[in-house]
Amino acid sequence: MHNRIVKTIDKSGEDPVVAALRPYSAPDEDEPKLEAVELFQKLFGNFSGSSHAQEPGEDISILDHLYNVEHSYDNNETQKLTMEDILSAEANRDSLTNDSYSGSDNATFVKPSVHEDVVTKFLRLIETQHLLGENCTAGTHLNLGEGVVDRYAQERFRIEAEVAVNRANMLTRLWKYAGPAVMHNEYLLHASVFSMVEFDDDVFAAGNCYDQYQYKDYQLFCPFAYRLPEGPILAKDLAVEYKYLSNTSEWFYIARKNAERVIRNHNQFRRGYNTYTYNDTAHTEREFDEILSVTYEDGKWSKPYYDCGGGNIWMLTYTVPFFGYSNGTYFFKGTSGIDIDLRRVDIDQCPLKPGSTQLNIFAGTDKCKKKTTECVPVPGLGFRRGSYRCVCRRGFYFPNTTAERRFYNGSDIEEEYEKHLLHQASLYSVVATFECLPCAEGCEACMDGSPCVAALNWVVRSSIFALACFVISCLPFIVYFTIKYGHVRVVRAASPALLRVIVLGALLIYCTTLVMYGRPTVFTCTARVWLREVGFCLTYGALMLKTWRISVIFQVRSAKAVKISDMYLLRRIGVIVGVACVLLSIRTLVAPPAVIVGRTREDLKAYLCNTDWWDHSFTTLEVIFLMWGIRLCIMVRKAPSEFNESRFISMAIYNEFLLSGFLNISMLFLQSPANPDLLYIIFFCHTQLTVTLLLCFIFGSKAYMVFRGHGKEEREKTGKFRSRP
């Protein structure tokens, strides 16, 4: 029997929804599918003593459809499936897997160890019933219980339900005021339900079913319109085929109880007035219009049920009562209802957006791999799993960069996830499958792995770094020179202590090249500013004060000698450095240097240290300090100086002033388009052309004179300046 049932499913001409869900079906071998069908029927209740299956050529009667609606409300007798039942059934299936089917050669059920959410089980139940198609037991012995799709439908199909409410109130008004002369026109009532079905494509059927002997002398009367499989709408009196006042007509019984409650409360009235045409130029007096109305809350949604025999689709029904009026009282007269075809409901498995108040029990059940992809719902695919796409998150790109459709199909992922749960060979468990690849560094979004950040020229930078290290390695020899030859007059006259301060400042300035070697960070940008400013204060502060001492001594006109010691100058240098450190500390705490993103000529990102008004302020102070130094150089240009040191100091100060101006002006033109490598080269060249030349001017001349023997020992007292009276 079951083999015949399974074989009657024709895959070539099947329903499009079934075709879409075909990946979720059991294997094509007959015996495994047979056992799956039997197991499903035993566990989920779609099984009766008299198994009935329609032959492919057998007509589907609308009588079966309304019979199915009855069972969708059952709470005690019907084999309903709540979410707890689904969980219990899954546990029983696992038990049967281990006990009853452990020796079967045709089908092997493996108990999944992977966590499976409740909604996934629920969706599998829906799909399994889709695949059974016509091979099901007539009726609604299979329904989904309370709190599943019906709560979802209250939001999704509220507008369609309000149509039934509106039609119920219209019938109440017509039966109260229009009278039998109008209402006994059956075409009028047929047209009413016909228009309800036409209102929305989601409405599969609509009907107004009257209570016993409430229409003419008919025992029952139920104008009912529904969509035929080929498309048109058919309206008919359903009561001819279906006697709905049976003990199992729960939907009609609930509507009667709701009507009694509304009549008992007697507080839901709608009032208005009517005037009629008296003649071509006048109306009649206003006539009062009042009815006892129903609202959306007075209706009832059925549990979602599988309408086996009446369309073989998942259905959802809403029913609300309407009233008759006689002898000043209202009474229950019938029901107004709509049937929703759940195939038209899109199951949105994607997570709700932050702040959303939408009711969606399916939200967050997608199987997208959240690390690199995100879910995007695909409307129009109906009541099925996998109605979504997994698209790449921002910052990731689809691995197949030549594909026209750069996303993963949700139905494919659901299929592989199902295999994964059953411990079958599955792509879902393979690392990097259904994943996107990260964009290149610095890319906020991308279409492929192309770089977004300009690559640094490490060959040039490494060469500059090595050269800077070589220059720094020479500084200890300069310090050693000041110590070893400190007794030589040419060195001693230049104050060895101040010479060492100059070397220390040069070291700090050289270190700016080292910290700028890699990609800028807040730390390296801050360190660059500190090293530059403190080194500048030490080096050029010592030079300025040495020049200042010469200017003070040779501007004195009295016979009394002026003595300015090296210690006094060192204290002055300490004050200058202290002021600079205070300003740098304030700047670091208030507005630390930031890393900005510039754009190269190729429109690639380039990271640069930001230049703000703090930097411009420090540059201005440097320029003012250098201008003071230039003034001192002018003052002492004719003063006698042993070994011409003041001339070399002046040359170093002039050189720094000119090159600093060039550097700051060039910085304005190198921000856009950005060129980090060129900036690094310019900074290095500026350091070498200023500090290195300064060291050559100051120490090169002294080394030359010492090693040529012209430095004069301390014991020698001759000299141009000392020999003067």
UniProtKB/TrEMBL annotation:
It comes from the Eukaryota. It is found in: Cell projection, Neuron projection; Postsynaptic cell membrane. Pfam families: 7tm_3, GPR158_179_EC. The chain crosses the membrane at residues 464-485, 497-517, 529-548, 569-596, 616-636, 648-672, 678-700. The keyword Nucleus does not apply. Residues 460-707 form the G-protein coupled receptors family 3 profile domain. InterPro entries: GPCR_3, GPCR_3_C, GPR158/179, GPR158_179_extracellular. Keywords: Cell membrane, Cell projection, Disulfide bond, G-protein coupled receptor, Glycoprotein, Membrane, Postsynaptic cell membrane, Receptor, Signal, Synapse, Transducer, Transmembrane, Transmembrane helix. The keyword Aminoacyl-tRNA synthetase does not apply. It is a multi-pass membrane protein. Belongs to the G-protein coupled receptor 3 family. This is G-protein coupled receptors family 3 profile domain-containing protein. The lineage of its organism: Eukaryota, Metazoa, Ecdysozoa, Arthropoda, Hexapoda.
